[in-house]
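Homework-ish question, so no full write-ups if that breaks the rules, but can someone show me the predicted structure for this set?
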Amino acid sequence: MPARHLVTLLLATATLCGQVSTRAGEIEAARLVKSAGLKPEKNNRVEQALLYIKESKVLERFTAGIAGFRLKLGGLVSGSGFAAGPEYLRRDLADGGVVVRGSVRASAKRYQLYDLELAFPKLAEQHAFVDLYAVHRNYPRIDYYGPGPESRKSGRSNFRLEDTAYEVTAGVKPVERLRLGGTAGYLAVNVGPGGDSRFVSTEKIYSQAGTPGIDQQADFWRGGVFAQYDWRDNPGGPRRGGNYLLRYSRYSDRRQQVQSFGRLDLEVQQYVPFFNERRVIALRAKSVLTDDSGRRQVPFYLQPTLGGSEDLRGFRPFRFYDDHMMVFNAEYRWETFSGMDAAVFADAGKVFHRRQQWNLKDLESSVGFGLRFNVQNSVFMRIDVGFSHEGFQVWVKFNNVF
Amino acid sequence: MGQVQQRVLRAVAPLLLLALSAAAQRFRPDDPLWREPRPRPVRQAAVRALSDYYDFFLNTFTKPEEKPPKGKTIRALSANTLGEVPDSAWYTSRHGRRRMTLEELLKGPDTGRPPAPGTWKVTKVKSEGVTPGLEIDDPLVRHYWLKFDPVTNPEMATAADVIGTTFFHALGYNVPEYYLVTFDRPQLEVAPKSTYTDALGHKRALTERDVDEVLFNVPRDRDRRYRAVASLAVPGKGIGKFRYHGTRADDPNDTIPHENRRELRGLFLFCAWLGHDDSRAINTYDSLVEEDGVPFIKHYLMDFGSILGSASVKANSARSGHERLFALKPAVIELLTLGLYVPRWARARFPKLPAGGRFEHEIFEPERYKTEYRNPAFENRLPDDCFWAARQVMAFDDAHIRAIVAKGGYNDPRSADWVSTCLIARRDRIGKTYFATVLPLDGFEVRDGRLVFEDLAVLYKFTAPREYEAAWSRFDNLKESKTALPGRTTLAVPPEARQAAPGEYFCADLRAADRRKTVTVYLRQGERDIQVVGVDRAW
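A: Not a homework solution, just the prediction itself:
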């Protein structure tokens, strides 16, 4: 150590020893000691990585993609298996006034979906919206157990469903929470042999008489109206409020007219909170009624169905088909911690052939329990286990059931 | 600091530590210290962002704070010998030490600089995240952040921000200036060359439409005006947040681990009182400021929009303040009992007052209060830290509380009344709880040859007047040892002390019925009179 430094050191020490006889000196001495070891303040690598992810919006960019392209997971029909594919999504056009979206998705079971959407969600100061949508689906192994509520589990077959739809939806929001609108579009359907070799193909064991449309499919003009009043507090994970939907659609068989029909969808959701919304009774009643006007028939591939992760959770997907359907779901949900709710549920429902059977007789039922995982109160994943007289089903879904 | 100086200091440091230990003595001539010495200049301080996810995981699944050996405690290191917190870059004694006038209380940190009337230039839009907001420059080119209420709860978050700022300022903390404002849409104008960053980080020119989009989700008052809280930019250069544990490596003045600072440990109680369950690093702010020609780092608390019954974008969950965001045991209990076990907090009653959010006092238990996740400083709190804080909470009388709540600008008087009622009841619960954990004697002085003090539990009528026992000793300041003065058991200062030479120390161990709770008061004979220089509490 050079001599001048040593002198400095000794002087400093002598000064400090004098200073620390006071409390203020003690504090200053501690500061001086710290000054000797000052280092740039920085985060550790884990925190640096987390910060990079956040500030560079890595997750947002991953979910939003590059130049609008991103990976889209799921979104196909129940039973399709794990699905993924590229999606092009732009929400930033015209200051968010125009949304363009298109995707190509396929699953491990070779289900395919191609769709394209152009939406104007914020017209008239967010009081009106228009949505143009086109989709082609190719689902090679949709289950079919035969017509009606008496179909047997052992009657399982499968068919390929291919359809292409073009649809325009326009509507207004005259007051907050209320949406009124109409739809018009075109639907072309093709049904073919099922691709699941474990089960027989539908057309081999079911006939046109009981399964209308199995021999020949139709193309449809489709139009309708809808009204929705949604006063749920948080649609992603509601704890109070309700959602009421009424939709009427008319399907016109543009070739033979024999498969033309009308379809009425009714749905009521109600959420009854208690214990400061830490407990919720969630109720849903849903019914689909069709109007086949005498000799006309609703093709089986457009019939309402029951069974699966969204309605009768103790039964396999598409377990029941018929012209009409009704289902009731009741869930008791309780918060276990901020990020997870648990639930026990009961489902009851039936498909039926005549509208006179729109009653509570002969309902199929299932019960079960589930876990709901949420981020900022919106459910992003659920695990439901449903039990019925046909066994049990485990569902892992990346959506909220209702 | 030059490299040579650094080297010298590194060499001096061990010697200095040796000198410090050699100079060990209980009291120094300048005790009790009421103001820390001028800070050492901070020439460079890194701008350091904190990850809130990291903060959550770190504090939820680890314990980053310094923990004492089993059976020991770590007393707060930032308190003076009386147990008070000296003024510093962290804290300034205000209402707790000397009662502020109502006018001073209401003024809070404000320097009378709300946004000036005229056109406000919008420089930035925050449409993502928890709380949408705007950044503006007023006609005097002062920069403000505008924050709003959720549509479901008009006035809730903005009132909480203003009320919280006023209370935390009076409690001694550095806080920004917040002003309640109302404005019409035409008053806003996009500033030239302002940019908008979308959710993906893409930048483009900011448009009037972007401002509209934020305002679509903002409630309007009866006159169709928007209400906001305008936060004036904090002076100095922002360098990020402070953590509630450890110290900043580049701040020479930051020598005490934050978890061992009394003002941060005691903050627990203020947060419990005001329902600030969101008290974590993300709601702090460090600024490199220059005062009296010395640049140093000043520490702020900010963002009080989610205190009281507010969760900023909605009313608080009933869980708030009672359970952490994640806690394994209660989660397992709730899961396994199918929700049939209903915690007490879930049954709390809240009036339907949207502006009040969810705030209550009936089931409030201050010692069981929980922030969203562990706060290291709060975890290290001891009864004497809580006593220090409880005494400050009790310093607000009913009129103070009602006046500060009125500053929140509630239009519905029932909201103001409810919030005030809750704060008054919670204040009393705090006093009753913490004045029972230690012997709550305070305000010591020697008057007419007697040691006098106030028993705060008696003063606030939490307990009946009681008798005290004193045991006097001579105190060796260097050896830190006591020698009993037999027979000296009254509050009268013994003759040995009155006749002692300047610089001699004496102490009195005071007890009431509960003999575990002791207050030791230290006296020092000065040149002219005898002074109280220290207070120790045992429990």
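Now go work out the reasoning yourself. Hint: The mean pLDDT of chain A is 91.
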